[in-house]
Fold this protein.
Amino acid sequence: MSNNERSEALNAILKTIPENPGIYKYFDSEKKLIYIGKAKNLKKRVHSYFNKVHDNRKTSMLVGRIEHIEFTIVDSEIDALLLENILIKKYQPKFNINLKDDKTYPSIKISAERFPKFYPTRNRVKDGSEYYGPYANISMMYTILDLIRSTIPTRNCNLNLSEANIKANKFKVCLEYHIGNCKGPCTGLQLEQDYLISIAQVREILKGNIAKVISSLKQRMIQASTDLRFEEAALMKQKLDSLENYQSKSTIVSNTITNVDVFSIAEDEKYAFVNFIKVVNGMIIQTKTMEFKKILDESAEEILEMAIADVRETLESDALEIIVPFEMQLADASINFIVPKAGEKKKLLDLSTKNALYFKKDRLEQYEKLNPEVRVDRVLGVIRDDLRLTELPRHMECFDNSNFQGAYPVSAMVCFKDGKPSKKDYRHFNVQTVEGPDDFATMYEVITRRYRRLRDENEPFPQLIVVDGGKGQLSSATQALKDLGLYGKIAIVGIAKRLEEIYYPEDPLPLHIDKKSETLKIIQQMRDEVHRFGITHHRKRRDKGTLKNELEAIKGIGPETAEQLLRELKSVKKIKETSLELLENIVGKAKAKLVQDYFKA
């Protein structure tokens, strides 16, 4: 790949990177992963590598070797940090620090023994114990430990509290019992059943249910302040602030989820995007987004089945539990498919869905830039679905009426083809049969004139007519189509003053369009365009009529003479400045003298 090709390829990717937190991966020309990084804002961080000259030689060397970029978005900066740590340990890229498993972030362990203890550790051992974490924010981990210990008394000794040892009175209570940090299970002062209730409370707090701890801490802070123990109250306030800003439940790490595959899908009519997340020992170790082009209008379930088969073969996944967004019909008794409704598994599914939706948006935008007709078909498909049409509205026409204090009634029609204005097809209508400001009759006349002409000249009809107005204007337009024998052959809707309300013939209830919909944007563009086009024509006609009225105010000058003068001289100002000789050439001696005398008076 040449430098220009490489630069163009990287620039195309850089334009698609979002401002979400997440991790990014750099690959060289051999498609080898050479660097993994994290960012609170992916777009700013990745762009910074290419927008400046780096003093560090290795950084410059890294940037020079980047041929491809991939990224994964997550929910928070903490999640990005943890995921970066996991992936670096797994892939050990050339330009990353090599982090060892036993010297990374600590977890909190609840030991698997009689009268369990809880304490921080960096080593996870499969001995039946429970682990919570790892914690990227170590100070926060110790804050939680301190709060639990001060709120829920438990032992921290290494004694073997077997039933036989306790009955034999081998132990005596220590200082921790006397200062209130332990209830003395070693001497039988606290029964095992009561102790396990305390451990259950610890477990809930470590899972993120810290509301009780916050409430208890607030009460103790208030009490310390009341007792004038301000230093202690201030320390509690710091811990309280830290706790309230902390999100203890990470979507990246979960003690209860092991060796699980997560799949989600986002699709449109032509393409489907499947996101895959692999969780092993409670941690995300792999992510991938696959793209499928539909050939035979395959269902989401069929595409997801293909994706699952591909992942299990190419990535050698042996997970027996798979999280999916809907029920699956795969006949495999060894695999448990789960559709979570809440909890940690639902958060993982939501994260996968977020990535699938983002990549769908990203890829479709790329396709639309390369193939504009793809966007046209998509937008027209959205309009068809939103307005409940039977075919793509490739040809749409929108009508609007205009008058000035009941005078000079006109109507305008704008034409949109493939979602864009077709100005050569715009039309004005000077109303011929309606006296006074009658919008309903005006709409009936212009719809009749427009589509009678198309019918008589064997011209193609639009797939959609849009009438700017409420039920009355729509009813008049509908009646015109009926009288022409075209009702039912052309779809027609009315738009109320509140643009999101769409009315259908013979349906009293409007359809409400999502304000963010592309359908609403196109309709608004059509209505704005027909307003502009109609008002421009109306203003010209009104101004011309006003000038004619001023000339007709001259005694002896009628409408035909006024029209003749304006046609030749264009304006009243020019008529005032014209010589008598030129006026005589236009309207004759007698009328020329009347005009000149009027303006000289």
About this structure: The first helix runs from residue 3 to 14. Residues 19 and 42 are 5 Å apart (CA to CA). The two ends are 84 Å apart (CA to CA).
